[in-house]
Design brief:
The complex is a heterodimer of chains A (about 220) and B (about 100). Chain A has two domains: about 170 residues, Rossmann fold (3-Layer(aba) Sandwich), CATH 3.40.50; about 55 residues, no CATH class. Chain A contains six helices and nine strands, in the order βββαβαββααββαβα. With about 220 residues, chain A is α/β, with parallel strands linked by helices. The longest helix of chain A is centred in the first third of the chain and has 20 residues. Chain B is mainly α. Chain B has a single domain, classed as ACP-like (Non-ribosomal Peptide Synthetase Peptidyl Carrier Protein, Chain A, Orthogonal Bundle), CATH 1.10.1200.10. The longest helix of chain B has 16 residues. Chain B is globular. Classes of the chains: A alpha/beta (about 220), B mainly alpha (about 100). At the A-B interface, α3 of A face α1 and α3 of B.
Chain lengths: ~220, ~100
């Protein structure tokens, strides 16, 4: 169930190797799952794989690739760009022969336009940045350092910025400031309220919720039946 | 997740309590009944170990979304975060109809 997937280099060869969690039994429906980002990735990891187990039981293959620069990646996160992640998502879709996509939270910004599927609780770039910058200003204030969101974003745009321990490059921050998710044809938004419980990314500590995993799985299983 | 619609910036006291208590329960994973028992003196930041700076940031961002308010850097101080009463008073001031109207969401 754990494998790797390769990002090809321009002109041939392999530019990078990233981790992949998948349930692949060569079935007709093959769902690319693009994970939540950064702190939310940790909080939603178990939930995401729990949804995959439900899809597997219902006869749906699913593929959860790590984005370059995340988790065990050999590539530095600071070098990643929004455009680079979009390309990685396209490459992942092609290499797994995905038929559908489930983009979780900020990954709605990356979902390949050619795939039908779902955005679960889509998060915009500005809201993602606002939350992360705010966490930094609050932590700074506790430490007796004065930083404002505007100052931090100005530094971020020119030099990059470390937010909650994640070092984001200048190009990534600049792109996120205006990045809004759009629903491509054949894609549907799934609001958190459809899962009948609070979003697990909100929680201060990672948790799980079997009922919510059932609900998200059921929406996809029903649509692909 | 229950969202009480806000009509013309009006949110009565009971509805505001419900919104804030649900929000805190969602963030801290509390039983809704436990959050419903919060009173003005119930301690938040510095009293609840789960409520670190990341969680506070999440709580404030979610307050913006659910209450339709904008929270600036300068608004965030120890007083508003120390107790449930402080957070509530802050939310009430932000929702005060005498303040300039906010853009519709």
């Amino acid at each position: 169930m754990s494998f790797t997937w390769n990002i090809p280099a321009l002109g041939g060869g392999i530019a990078g190797e990233e981790l992949l969690v998948s349930f692949d039994r060569q079935r007709q429906s093959r769902l690319l799952i693009l994970p939540a980002w950064f702190d939310e990735a940790n909080k939603l990891r178990r939930f995401t794989v729990e949804v995959m187990r439900r899809l597997d039981s219902a006869g749906i293959d699913s593929f959860l690739p790590d984005l370059p620069g995340c988790n065990e990646s050999l590539t530095p996160l600071a070098d990643q760009t929004l455009e680079g992640w979009r390309k990685a998502a396209d490459i992942a879709a092609a290499s797994f022969a995905a038929t559908h996509v489930l983009a979780i939270r900020a990954s709605a910004l990356l979902a390949p336009a050619s795939l039908p599927g779902w955005h679960y609780a889509a998060q915009s770039g500005p809201k993602l940045l606002r939350g992360m910058v705010r966490a930094r200003t609050i932590a700074a204030r506790e430490a007796g350092i004065s930083e404002t969101s505007d100052e931090l974003l100005a530094i971020g745009r020119s030099e990059g910025l470390t937010l909650s321990g994640w070092h984001l490059g200048a190009a990534m921050i600049a792109a996120l400031e205006t990045a809004e998710p759009t629903l491509a044809p054949g894609r549907h938004g799934i609001a958190q309220s459809e899962l009948a419980g609070p979003g697990l990314w909100l929680r201060a500590e990672p948790a799980e919720d079997a009922a919510q995993a059932d609900a998200l799985g059921a929406i996809i299983i029903e649509a692909l039946a | 997740m229950s969202i009480t619609p806000i009509i013309d910036g009006q949110l009565d006291e009971a509805a505001l309590d419900q919104q804030l208590q649900t929000l805190i329960a969602d963030v801290l994973g509390l039983d809704p009944a436990q959050a419903a028992a919060f009173d003005a003196d119930s301690g938040l930041f510095g009293h609840l170990p789960e409520l670190d700076s990341m969680a506070v940031a999440g709580l404030l961002t979610e307050m913006e979304d659910r209450l339709g308010i904008v929270i600036e850097d300068d608004d965030v101080d120890g007083e508003m975060l120390e107790t449930y009463g402080g957070l509530r008073a802050f939310a009430r001031a932000k929702l005060d109809p005498l303040q300039p109207p906010l853009d519709p969401l």
